[in-house]
Each structure stands twice: as structure tokens, then as C-alpha cells.
Amino acid sequence: MQISAQHQFLPKTNSVRASMVMDNFGIDFEQGSHVIADEIDLPIEQGQIVAFTGESGSGKSTLMRTVRSELTEQGQTTISLDEVSLGEKILVDSIELPFEETLQILSACGLGEAHLLLRTPQELSDGQRYRFQLAKAFSTKVDWIIADEYTATLDRTLAKVVSLNLQKLNVRTNSGILVATTHEDIIDDLAPHLQVRCFMNGSIELIQAVDADRKKKDSRWQTNSGSHRPPKPTGRTSLGGIIAATKSASSVS
Questions:
Q1: Which of 128, 178, 181, 201 is 20 to 30 A (C-alpha) from 148?
Q2: In angstroms, how far apart are the furthest CA atoms of the chain?
């Protein structure tokens, strides 16, 4: 799959405060588009787990949404966790599958305790609701499940447990999974077929599993964004510098 992705900057109105920031950092409003990926080949196949990782602002979510759009154009069905309606029924009645299959999915998502099966989504904790969203997404049996900010609301131990169970569900159901996350502590448990690691400097590293045990190899692409211009040397490279400059200007006047 060949992918190009970019982020379009919105027009902005200048202000006194904006001018102070630009003067002190030697920058201007970003204009046009920031290229995240320029015709890179992502070896994505149906039924795989693909993890987009990187710092906030590195472009991972934009890249994942672009991949989703491409999959949709190819006729494959997708569902995002954000689109999953929790409903008001108790958990065991909320999934429209045979009883045993419902129990298997809920259990795989860490919701197999009897008292949880009889609760409504509104009676669950935030972490439990997240796991219920995963269960409902898998119950739809779409080609691809999309999870942005994956496990961000979970404590890190639970995030690893959920990731391990997600990997098992992937094997069992053959539903493909696209996740975007700033947390790489779940990678070993999630065992993605492909990890797309995005960097703030515009480079993209692909770490691909090469065998049944998902051992990894990696390669790196450098995208030419053209939107990261180094600031002019002003000697004031922090918010503290702007504040100090402002105070200095006030004392002179």
C-alpha cells in the first residue's frame, strides 16, 4: 500500500502576542501543508496488527487515518472505537452474537467476571468501558478495527494485559487492527506485524515482523516535509526568554 499524508495548516489572524512570539523565536505562522509521508510503501495485509507510534504531533494519527481511508476505498470495512455505541443494556445482552461467543469476546477483553456481565456500561470504570468498546468492535466482525490513543486511559499494567489479549483476538478472529499510541511499552505484548514509528523530524521507521514469531527487521524513510524551519538565533529560545524580553522592554519605556 502506497501512502501519502499531509497536515494542512489553517489560516490565522495576527495579534500583538503572536507577534511577540514570532519576533522572539524568529519564526512566522506555518502555512500550506506539512508532509508526513510522501509515497511510502506500507506492507499492510488484511488481518494484521499495525501499530503507529511516536510523540504527540509526530503525525501518527494522521497517517493512520490516511491508511483507513485507503482501506475503505479498497472496499474493506472499518470501525473506530470512537464510533462504538456503548448502549444501556447489561454487557451480556449488548453483544449480538451467540451466548458462548459473547462470553469468549468479553472474557478476552478482561470482562469475564460474572458480576461485570450483569452491569451496564454506565456502571463500569473508564478502563472497563474501554475494554467493552474493544469487545463490541470485535463483535461487529469488520475487516479492520481502528484505535487512536490506544490504551491511553489505562494504567500501564492493564494496558499490557489488554494488548496481549488483543493479539490473541487478532489470531482468533482475523480482524485487522490499526492502533496509534505514544506508549511503546505495549509493543512486545501487542506483537504487531508492522510498527510504523513516526519522528518529529519527519522520518518514519518501519519495523516489520518477518516470521510466525513476529521477530523484527526495520528500515527507515525520511519524508521531506519542508515545514520545520529552524528558528533564527535570537538568544531567547523559551517562554521565559519572551517574558524576560517583555519585562526588559517595559522597564526601558
A1: 201
A2: 78
Angle at 53 between CA 52 and CA 58, to 5 degrees: 100
Q: Determine, yes or no, domain membership for 134.
A: no
**46 alpha-carbon distance from chain centroid:** 19
pTM here is: 0.77
User: Distance between CA atoms of 59 and 175, rounded to whole angstroms?
Assistant: 24
Domain that holds residue 174: 2-77+142-252
130 in a structural domain = no
Question: Per the structure, how many domains does the chain have?
Answer: 1
**Assigned domain for 123 exists:** no
Place of cell 494485559: 161
Which CATH number belongs to the domain containing residue 64 in this structure? Answer: 3.40.50.300
CB–CB of 165/108 below 8 Å?
Answer: yes
Cβ atoms of 53 and 187 within 8 Å: the answer is: yes
In a domain, 66, yes or no: yes
pLDDT tens sequence for the chain (253 residues)? 887 777 677 888 999 999 999 999 999 887 777 677 777 889 999 999 999 999 988 889 989 999 999 999 999 999 999 999 999 999 999 999 999 999 989 988 889 999 999 999 999 998 899 899 999 999 999 999 999 999 888 888 989 988 998 998 898 888 999 999 999 999 999 999 999 999 988 889 999 886 655 555 555 555 544 444 444 444 444 555 555 555 655 555 5
Read off the C-alpha cell for 242.
Answer: 519572551
